[in-house]
Every structure is written in structure tokens, then in C-alpha cells.
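seq as requested:
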Amino acid sequence: MATLRTGKYGGEYYGSLFNQSQPLTQSEMEKNAIYLYQVLYYIHGWSINAICGLLGNMEHESSINPGRWQSDDVGNYNLGYGLVQWTPVTKYTDWCTQQGYSDPSEMDNNIARIIYEVENKIQYIATSGYPESFAEFTKSSQSPYYLACAFAWN
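C-alpha cells:
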């Protein structure tokens, strides 16, 4: 069962604890999508279309569960973890440790890593089919479908 948690921005979201993993229900995903929207739009200035594109990817990758292990294979560090399934898991968990974040399953730590990748121009690599940088992606008015594809491919 997913745990209802309170984020540092005051909103609530659902997620697995680090030693658990399961898909979220539709209503749990919707609550998480609202939390992500509020943080990315109001605090980080992302476009609504970029947020929708990212959420499309997250729904497929993790059911928008910040504490989800790939294939629900808890403890398999060779697979992916988190909202966007960082692979291997240590790509994300080592970064959390370096930042002083004690719980990788927290939504705000997942968001912080995404923002870190935007600011440091890492992980997201523009392709000929989707030539936007990650920073350009966050402000894009392209369709959510296009942006979901861009995020998946880049």
C-alpha cells in the first residue's frame, strides 16, 4: 500500500517507502500529478505542456510513484528507480547521499534531481528528432504528446 506523505511545499502525495514498491492507483497518480504540477509550474516555471509530457513518461515508467523500483524488484540496484526510473539505481541514490537527502523515496528529492539535471545539462541528450535542450523542453509549448516522446527519447 502506498503511503500518503506531505511534501516540503505543503502538498500531499503518495509513494512507496524505499524498501517497498507497487504501482499507484489512478486516484493516487492524480494526486501526485497535482503535486508535481504545482511544484514544477509555480516554483520552477515549467510550461503546462512540458509538465504533461513529463507526467506521461512518469505514468509509464513508475505510475508517478517516487519510490517505485523497476518491475517492483526491491533492492535490485541494476534496474531503475524513482519517478523517471534512473538506471542504475545508484545514479540517483548516490546523488541523494551527496546532497544530504536521507530518503530517496521522497517526491521532493526526485524533483530536485530532475531540476539538477536541467541546470547541469546532464542525462537529457537532445536528438535529431527532438533537438530541444532540457531547459528548452521545460518551457516548450509543443504538444504534450510530442514532449512525452522528446523526454522518452532524449
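The chain has a mean pLDDT of 97.
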